[in-house]
Amino acid sequence: MQDPKDQSANPAAAPESALSGEAPQSAITEPEPFTELENLHAENASLKEKVLRTLADMENLRRRTEREVADAKTYGVTSFAREMLTLADNLRRGLETISPEVKEAADPALKGFIEGIELTERAFLASLNRQGVKKLEPQGQRFDPNMHEALFEVPDPSVPNGTVVQVVETGYAIGERCLRPAKVGVARGGPKPAQDQPKSEG
Question: Is residue 150 predicted with pLDDT exceeding 80?
Fold first, then answer.
């Protein structure tokens, strides 16, 4: 009978896997093919989602930048334009002090001076218009709280209720925004505007 000590000391008696240095078969774990494929699909979907999200963020940033540049171009002169309105007001007030009768009876020199002031006003308003500043024309229009400031009401049943019947101070807009509201008088007591009347059922 062979001694167990002799077997451990004899290399030929040791298991073949121990002699080759390889791990036992049970210790090697290979990934399942389907599991690995599912992981790759999941990773691919995640990367695709990240790319799409990044592209969407870049598009939003581009649009926001374009909008900010456009707003800066349109509204960058707002403060300066608002200060220039005083000049427009003074030109208009000066011209309004001269009645048509006085202008007609004036000598050629004075008449030429008045016409020069009128030309200056038109040129000044045209310059403002080129900068996106437009004069409001609310007379006869429906009152708009975004563009008009009502100072008083005028009982006038001949026009729809809420119609601007008098302009006390000219208003201006820049782009789509109000630069200075027009100060107006608004009709009270007339019929409602057509768009406010309920539609008759047919």
Answer: yes
Distance between CA atoms of residues 154 and 146, nearest Å: 20
CATH number assigned to the domain comprising residue 173: 2.30.22.10
Task: Kindly give the pairing relationship between strand 133-135 and strand 182-188.
Answer: unpaired
pTM over 0.70: no
137, two tokens: 């024309």
Structural domain harbouring 146:
136-194
71 versus 52: the higher-pLDDT residue is 52
Contacts by 197-200, CB closer than 8 A, 24 or more apart: none
Q: How many CB atoms lie within 10 A of CB 182?
A: 25
CA distances from 18 to 12, 26, 62, 115 (A): 11, 14, 66, 115
pLDDT given at position 200: 44
